[in-house]
């Protein structure tokens, strides 16, 4: 039996009757609905809903998109993403071409589906995110190949300027990692990331501001200390010339990423993503304390404390070979300050197309 939350006519953005692509709120609503479309198209597949019984297509048809390709996991064959193409009516095509802020294509990724046909594989991917190993998974390789081929296409109708990427929860982590990978090569994509996981204790949920600040400073000092120790240890070991050259090319990965400004949407009531709020605020506070504190924070934010502890104890942690997925130097952070009834509501995708939410945005630029 279908849930009312899957039916576009019952819970979709009914207020969005006159779409303005220059309106950032409208952009957010459409991106969230396209992600919802991936959730529903996978549920249609699982429940064998076809024809008039399927519920997915209104989530993109309502905004004149066409789903042109499913992205399918090679392990459980679930649909985890899709590529959409904007197909506006003929009378609107003149305002959705040159100079418009409308995308020509959107690649969207869903998050974890707690249903029997997909839960096992999705939880496996969630664990990879916790272990900082999402980049080693076949699902991400499929996603990355799709994003890269669209973003770097020589066709005038594709390319980075005509492409958006978006995702929710685990799908937001996938979109974030894909966006970071391309940003390091100088390709910057318009990105809408909804409730992306931040792999850290949810310090932001602690009500006492002094306790929050103290815990974050302590965490930065410990992480930076372990990272510096590991760097010294690695420097003392002989390494092939190729590895030395690769290290020189990526001495400051944060600087290479700093020009990319993804839209990150978080809710303080969601313990999986709320630490993004403290992450950016704490970084600013550390930089204000002076160069030394700023250096400590830059060192800390590029490493996973869990991975460093495992390495210090001699436990193999082969997947921890790059900065954590959630580390992003610059971002537009959109915080939903509307009180949530529970975690499910705070983490849900539905909040991001509603028009009754209190959204506060701040832009954080890496210096």
Q: Provide the structure class.
A: alpha/beta
In DSSP terms (H or I, runs of 4 or more residues), the helix count works out at 13
Strand content: 5-15%
Strand order of the largest sheet: 1-2-3-4-5-6-7-8
Low-confidence stretches: 242-250, 315-320
Biggest β-sheet description = 8 strands, mixed
What series of H and E elements makes up the topology?
Answer: HHHEEEHHEHEHHHEHHHEHE
GO molecular function, one term: hydrolase activity
Organism: Brassica carinata
Domain Fungal lipase-type: 144-188
Protein name: Fungal lipase-type domain-containing protein
If you had to describe this structure to a student in words, what would you say it looks like?
With 367 residues, the protein is of the alpha/beta class. Helices cover 41% and strands 13% of the residues. The chain has 13 helices and 8 strands. The protein has helices at 8-11, 24-47, 58-61, 119-130, 138-151, 170-183, 209-235, 241-249, 253-257, 275-288, 291-301, 305-312, 343-347, and strands spanning 65-72, 79-86, 105-109, 163-168, 190-194, 263-266, 331-336, 359-364. The chain has an 8-stranded mixed sheet with strand order 1-2-3-4-5-6-7-8, sandwiched between helices. Strand 1 and strand 2 (79-86) form a beta hairpin. Helix 7 crosses helix 11 and helix 10 (275-288) runs antiparallel to helix 11 (291-301). It is globular and about 65 Å long.
């Amino acid at each position: 039996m279908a849930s009312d939350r899957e039916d576009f006519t019952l819970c979709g953005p009914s207020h969005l009757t006159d779409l303005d692509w220059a309106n950032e709120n409208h952009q957010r609503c459409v991106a969230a609905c396209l992600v919802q479309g991936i959730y529903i198209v996978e549920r249609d597949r699982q429940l064998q809903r076809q024809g008039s019984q399927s519920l997915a297509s209104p989530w993109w048809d309502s905004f004149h998109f066409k789903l042109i390709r499913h992205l399918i996991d090679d392990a459980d064959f679930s649909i985890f993403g899709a590529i959409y193409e904007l197909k506006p009516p003929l009378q609107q095509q003149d305002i959705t071409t040159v100079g418009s802020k409308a995308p020509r294509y959107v690649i969207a990724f869903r998050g974890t589906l707690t249903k029997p046909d997909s839960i096992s594989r999705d939880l496996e991917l969630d664990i990879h995110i916790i272990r900082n190993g999402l980049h080693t998974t076949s699902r991400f390789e499929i996603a990355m190949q799709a994003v890269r081929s669209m973003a770097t296409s020589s066709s005038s109708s594709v390319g980075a300027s005509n492409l958006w990427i978006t995702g929710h929860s685990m799908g937001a982590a996938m979109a974030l990692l894909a966006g970071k990978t391309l940003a390091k090569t100088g390709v910057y994509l318009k990105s809408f990331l909804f409730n992306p996981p931040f792999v850290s204790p949810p310090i932001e949920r602690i009500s006492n501001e002094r306790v929050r600040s103290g815990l974050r400073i302590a965490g930065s000092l410990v992480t930076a200390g372990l990272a510096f120790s590991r760097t010294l240890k690695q420097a003392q070991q002989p390494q092939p010339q190729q590895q030395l050259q690769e290290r020189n090319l990526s001495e400051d990965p944060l600087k290479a990423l700093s020009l990319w400004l993804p839209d990150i949407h978080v809710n303080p009531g969601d313990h999986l993503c709320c630490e993004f709020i403290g992450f950016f605020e704490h970084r600013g506070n550390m930089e204000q304390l002076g160069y030394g504190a700023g250096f400590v924070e830059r060192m800390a934010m590029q490493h996973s404390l869990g991975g460093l502890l495992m390495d210090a104890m001699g436990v193999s942690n082969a997947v921890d070979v790059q900065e954590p997925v959630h580390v992003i130097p610059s971002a537009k952070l959109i915080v939903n300050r509307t009180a949530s009834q529970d975690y499910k509501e705070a983490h849900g995708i539905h909040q991001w197309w509603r028009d009754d939410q209190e959204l506060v945005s701040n832009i954080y630029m890496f210096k």
